[in-house]
Amino acid sequence: MTGVAAGAGVPAVLGLAAGHSVGFALAWVLPAAAALVMSGVLYDGVRWHRTRYRIGVSRVELRTGVLLRSRRSLPLERVRSVDMTADPLQRTFGLVVVRIGTGQRSGAGESTLELRPVAREEGDRLRAVLLDRVRAAGGCPPEAADGRLASLDPHWIRYAPLSFTTPLLGLVAGGVLLQVADWIGLRDSVLRRAVDLLAVLPPAGVVAVLAAAALSAGVLGSLGLFVETWWNFRLDREPGGTLRVRRGLLTTRSISLEERRLRGVGLVEPLGNRLAGAARVDALAAGLGTGFDDDSTDHATLLPAAPRALAERVAAVVLGEPVSPTASVRLTPHPPAARGRRLRRALAAAAVPVLGLAVLGLSVDGVLLVLAGVVAVVVTPVALALALDAYRNLGHGITGRYLVTRSGTLRRRTVALQRDGVIGWTATQSVFQRRAGLITITASTAAGAFSAHDVGESAGLRFAEDAVPDLFGPFLERVEPAPRS
């Protein structure tokens, strides 16, 4: 509630101060902010006193609410995680928020119970009691060695700016600066001052200065975001078969993952990190999702961007293997037809801005025709290079208990998936793939679906059958060789 009051009060003070004195603005805003904070504190106090929870023989139960009472419970055998977070204010008072989850996705939140807040000692006790009961009920891998698996190396911060989010953070910083200037009535003067400073530069110089400013702000933002997210990072294997990730500077997080839910690991290498020899390790586990859809850090990440060799070692230790499957397997390349598909897509993507500028140049200003030519000369080779890299990164293979797939260029993904965790296969083939003799094979698991894209038809079906025998085979039509005369 304090954050809400500050978020509403700061713009209000700045807005009122634009036409009046700061004292006048504070006289209006401070009483309202104080009332908002006090009402929030009172409400939270009543809610906290009326909240009850208990761990029974078979269920964990929570009863809370002020005007609307809520009673919820989760079966103990379905509890899969007990995570703790604490923002700076909660840390000051020794409090944490405990989230008890089942590892299932639910829009209404039926799969999670949240205790907000409890003492840190109580949070540790709840975590130990709940996970001990889960381990006793489900067992754990006895061969796994407990202890510290990885901890933060300050040198890893150099990988933070090597992301496509860095320039976006710079643009966001510029937008925030203009918004603050608008609140205090200085937006026009700031813009006018910036135009006056840039007016003496040629167009190329203006672009270079703006790009440098945005990139500098983005680098600072990415460094700050990395420090806030991964400060004091530790990855431990605790007795009983639980992986525990602890991290955070201002807001601390403690995330637990049962190893018996683990179905494999994924190495994620954004282009910048890959060029620098770094990779991120994600867990592929039931209820966590893949963690591959964006760069945001979530419950699936076991190791932030770190040297590739270290990422491979952590993946091997997490899986209980002497060598990571992502490093030991020799991937089978995909047919040349897959390369042709990527080259055509790249040329089509490069043609869109070029054709757009050309049309505008013919109808508005001929200068845009020159710009279209420049864009074509610059963008086309880059698009073709990325397409060729995407083709080189395609691959699939089998090593021991794991099947491995790799794809992507801007964000290369290498997935090592336990073969006995595959519960189904899906073969898809578009019209264009059919003409090129290609197919996409997707393995379905409790941790999500993982695909080998644009494989040769026979090679893809054979890969699925070899990885999990008799699962896909009964649906295949086998052609017997003709007898020799």
From TrEMBL:
Pfam families: bPH_2 (PF03703). Keywords: Membrane, Transmembrane, Transmembrane helix. It comes from the Bacteria. The chain crosses the membrane at residues 29-46, 168-186, 206-227, 346-364, 370-391. Residues 48-119, 391-456 form the YdbS-like PH domain. This is PH domain-containing protein. It comes from Pseudonocardia bannensis.
